[in-house]
């Protein structure tokens, strides 16, 4: 565009912005009025609630009428409150729109229908008569043209079919506070200029929405609805997480009548990540989906009776264990327990349980066995063998509850009940007295004392038995640990040697005796428990998102698939960032293949071109990674003479970065142990934060953090505190993950004057070496 034309266009566009904002003001006023009226209605319904219902409990018919009347009144109140909530949400969105009404415009000439100017923003906005769209939601069918095409022939899908036409203009805006800052008419991709501006900004402590600059291949992820499994393999910083969150927003919009945020679950890599991404959906006017780490989820399945090691502790062990024999042995155990072979073994064991081998615990009260484990086993196997194990358990629960009720009755005569009656306080007595009175009705016909005592006995026994009933209902009488243990008494699986199997068994059993489950036991244990108890997934989940999917073992992935048999799954991963020691999953097995769609993202947006050039040597097929054309300084490799010199140098560089406007700086260490030492050292000198596995919020400033907790997150500047300490296959991905957290600058300190072994694969021209003497 020539300067003159651009200036003219700017004036015209600003006029339109002003016009639309005025319309928004009118709408907001109307909403204000509505809110006022409905708010009044709500408080009136609330305060008159009981006056407006007819309460009459004399006859059964009257009770029904009263019930209906209350129900109607409650429904009215509910409906008003819902409308109130809806208007409130719309108000919030409109306020956002007033600030930035839209970010894009396309002129689409639909064959035979003329040209329409389509302005695209985070939500739709219509004229007063609800006839014309002033703004289209970015998720509307026509908006996809904006993301998918450059000027020329274009089409989009609608529920009633494909619409063809020509894209005549594609324009981007930067609007702040209603003022048009700039506009670009763009060609092939969505405004490199705009993207450059967005990516050049400093990293935030919260992830941003990428709605204005979604790239074509990311749009494929966001709008894909064909397959059961959507599999995204994307290089570091390619926007997997960003696209996933936009996809959540898209699905919520597209299926707004049937899908709610509660029906969507995101498995995230660490607790910090939860808070990091928590603002993206609200920014888009949507509610956050359910979110959990896999470990947290596992814990809810296993229950409190066992202490389960978390994934980070497992990793920390492997990174710090110096006894190679022990480490090797643990590694073999991890490999086996995370494999499909182990899952098959459990499946076989489970099948055999139909005939024999179920283990139960005695149901005990005050050291007296009321129902013995043998009795439970006998009863269980007396049931028809075609009944499934979970159903038999259900029947067993019903039987056990009945038995316990009988025992409870008999127990009322016991001495301990007398003893407890003595200890009752006045209020409890009084309560019992009134209850007895109520029960008897007429005063003269009975013996209060007797009645009262009987009542008290019952109350006391029931109080004690309540916890037994609950624990029966919760299936605590099933001895899952005993059965899990049995699996390790089976003959040696084909893939292992006798010696290895024996060691695995010994260690597992020793842990079980302490009620401890290592991380690698967590999933198989939960799997066996779920199979026996017949527990299904968290109800209502229809879409599952798994970020960092490469970190899940085969076993875990299969477990998740079984847990959510009716859900669609979006799996996002990067094989180069697979930091765990277990076998890495295929993500979806071959038999699922026809239900899978795969999308590959090769362009990296997070880091500068210089950082990508440096890190590509570490990645499989790294030469295919496409950096975004944004420049910065080359990564620095620093050899310091001693630790004092290193700290001095580090402090100077950090200060420099801060003066350069860097808001988030991470000093990444290999382990939590090292992080803690570095934190202790630095906290005396600068304002610094220590991020540990329990840390749930991410703040601006300088953070010391172990590499595995930095997954999924990014920082303006990254320092690898001791980059020479990484070695071996397992740690390569950790090193790569750490380096790729940097947006603008990366500095690595090499202790001992040595580079780590991965530098053999890195082009020497891609980094700068500095000696600090
Ligand atoms: N289309 C886009 N427009 C603007 N920014 C983008 C776009 N795609 C990605 N980004 C930015 O790139 C950075 C990396 O994105 P994101 O964290 O989603 O990538 P990722 O693939 O999940 O990364 P990793 O696997 O390395 O954790 C973020 O700052 C994100 O905002």
UniProtKB/TrEMBL annotation:
The keyword ATP-binding applies. Its EC number is 5.6.2.4. It comes from the Bacteria. The keyword Isomerase applies. ATP binds at residues 234-241. GO terms for cellular component: cytosol. GO terms for molecular function: 3'-5' DNA helicase activity; ATP binding; DNA binding; hydrolase activity. It catalyses: Couples ATP hydrolysis with the unwinding of duplex DNA by translocating in the 3'-5' direction; ATP + H2O = ADP + phosphate + H(+). Keywords: ATP-binding, Helicase, Hydrolase, Isomerase, Nucleotide-binding. PROSITE patterns: UVRD_HELICASE_ATP_BIND. It is an enzyme of class 5 (isomerase). InterPro entries: DNA_helicase_UvrD-like_C, DNA_helicase_UvrD/REP, HelD_bacillota, P-loop_NTPase, UvrD-like_ATP-bd. This is DNA 3'-5' helicase.
């Amino acid at each position: 565009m020539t300067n003159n034309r651009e200036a003219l266009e700017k004036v015209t566009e600003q006029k339109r912005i002003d016009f639309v904002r005025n319309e928004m003001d009118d709408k907001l006023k109307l909403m204000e009025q509505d809110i006022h009226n409905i708010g009044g209605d709500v408080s009136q319904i609330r305060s008159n609630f009981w006056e407006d219902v007819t309460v009459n409990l004399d006859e059964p018919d009257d009770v029904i009428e009263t019930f209906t009347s209350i129900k109607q009144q409650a429904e009215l109140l509910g409906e008003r409150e819902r409308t109130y909530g809806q208007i409130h949400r719309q108000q919030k969105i409109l306020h956002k729109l007033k600030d930035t009404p839209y970010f894009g415009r396309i002129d689409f000439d639909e064959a035979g229908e003329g040209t329409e100017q389509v302005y695209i923003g985070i939500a739709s906005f219509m004229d007063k008569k609800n006839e014309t769209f002033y703004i289209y939601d970015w998720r509307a069918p026509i908006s996809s043209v904006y993301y998918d095409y450059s000027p020329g022939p274009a089409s989009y899908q609608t529920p009633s079919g494909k619409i063809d036409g020509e894209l005549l203009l594609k324009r981007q805006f930067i609007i702040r506070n209603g003022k048009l800052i700039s506009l670009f008419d763009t060609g092939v991709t969505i405004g490199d200029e705009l993207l450059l501006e967005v990516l050049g900004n400093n990293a935030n402590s919260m992830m941003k929405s990428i709605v204005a600059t979604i790239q074509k291949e990311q749009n494929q992820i966001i709008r894909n609805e064909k397959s059961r499994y959507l599999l995204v393999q994307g290089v570091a910083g390619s926007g997997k997480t960003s696209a996933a969150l936009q996809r959540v927003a898209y699905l919520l919009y597209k299926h707004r009548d049937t899908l709610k945020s509660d029906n969507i679950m995101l498995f995230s890599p660490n607790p910090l990540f939860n808070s990091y991404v928590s603002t993206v959906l609200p920014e888009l006017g949507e509610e956050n989906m359910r979110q959990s780490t896999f470990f947290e989820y596992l814990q809810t399945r296993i229950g409190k009776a066992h202490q389960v090691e978390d994934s980070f502790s497992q990793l920390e062990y492997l990174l710090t264990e110096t006894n190679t024999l022990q480490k090797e042995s643990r590694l073999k155990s991890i490999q086996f327990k995370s494999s499909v072979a182990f899952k098959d073994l459990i499946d076989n064991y489970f099948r055999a349980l139909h005939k024999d081998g179920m283990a139960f615990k005695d149901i005990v009260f005050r050291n007296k066995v009321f129902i013995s484990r043998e009795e439970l086993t006998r009863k269980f196997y007396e049931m028809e063998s075609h009944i499934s194990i979970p159903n038999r358990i259900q029947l067993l629960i019903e039987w056990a509850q009945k038995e316990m009720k009988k025992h409870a009755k008999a127990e009322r005569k016991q001495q301990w009940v007398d003893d407890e009656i003595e200890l009752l306080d006045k209020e409890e007595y009084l309560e019992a007295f009134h209850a007895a009175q109520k029960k008897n009705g007429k005063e003269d016909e009975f013996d209060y004392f007797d009645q009262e005592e009987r009542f008290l006995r019952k109350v006391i026994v029931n109080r004690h038995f309540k916890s037994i009933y609950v624990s029966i209902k919760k299936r605590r009488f099933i001895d899952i640990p005993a059965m899990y243990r049995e699996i390790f008494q089976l003959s040696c699986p084909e893939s292992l040697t006798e010696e290895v199997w024996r060691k695995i068994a010994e260690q597992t059993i020793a842990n079980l005796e302490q009620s401890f489950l290592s991380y690698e036991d967590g999933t198989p244990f939960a799997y066996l428990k779920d199979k026996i108890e017949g527990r299904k997934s968290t109800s209502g989940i229809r879409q599952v998102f798994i970020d960092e999917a490469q970190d899940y073992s085969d076993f875990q992935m299969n477990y998740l698939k079984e847990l959510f048999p009716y859900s669609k799954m979006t799996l996002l991963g990067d094989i180069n960032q697979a930091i765990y020691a277990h076998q890495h999953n295929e993500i979806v097995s071959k038999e699922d293949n026809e239900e899978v769609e795969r999308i590959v993202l090769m362009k990296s947006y997070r880091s500068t071109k210089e950082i990508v050039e440096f890190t590509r040597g570490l990645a499989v097929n790294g030469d295919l990674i496409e950096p975004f054309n944004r420049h910065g300084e080359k990564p620095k490799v620093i050899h310091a003479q001693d630790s004092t010199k290193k700290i001095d140098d580090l402090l100077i560089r950090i200060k420099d970065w801060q003066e350069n406007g860097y808001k988030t700086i991470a000093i990444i260490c290999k382990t939590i142990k090292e992080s803690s030492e570095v934190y202790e050292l630095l906290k005396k000198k600068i304002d610094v934060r220590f991020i540990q596995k329990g840390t749930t919020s991410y703040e601006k400033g300088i953070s010391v953090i172990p590499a595995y907790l930095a997954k999924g997150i990014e920082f303006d500047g990254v320092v690898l505190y001791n980059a020479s300490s990484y070695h071996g296959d397992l740690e390569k991905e950790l090193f790569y993950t750490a380096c790729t957290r940097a947006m603008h600058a990366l500095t690595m300190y090499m202790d001992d004057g040595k580079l780590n072994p991965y530098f053999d694969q890195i082009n020497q021209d891609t980094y700068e070496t500095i000696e600090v003497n």
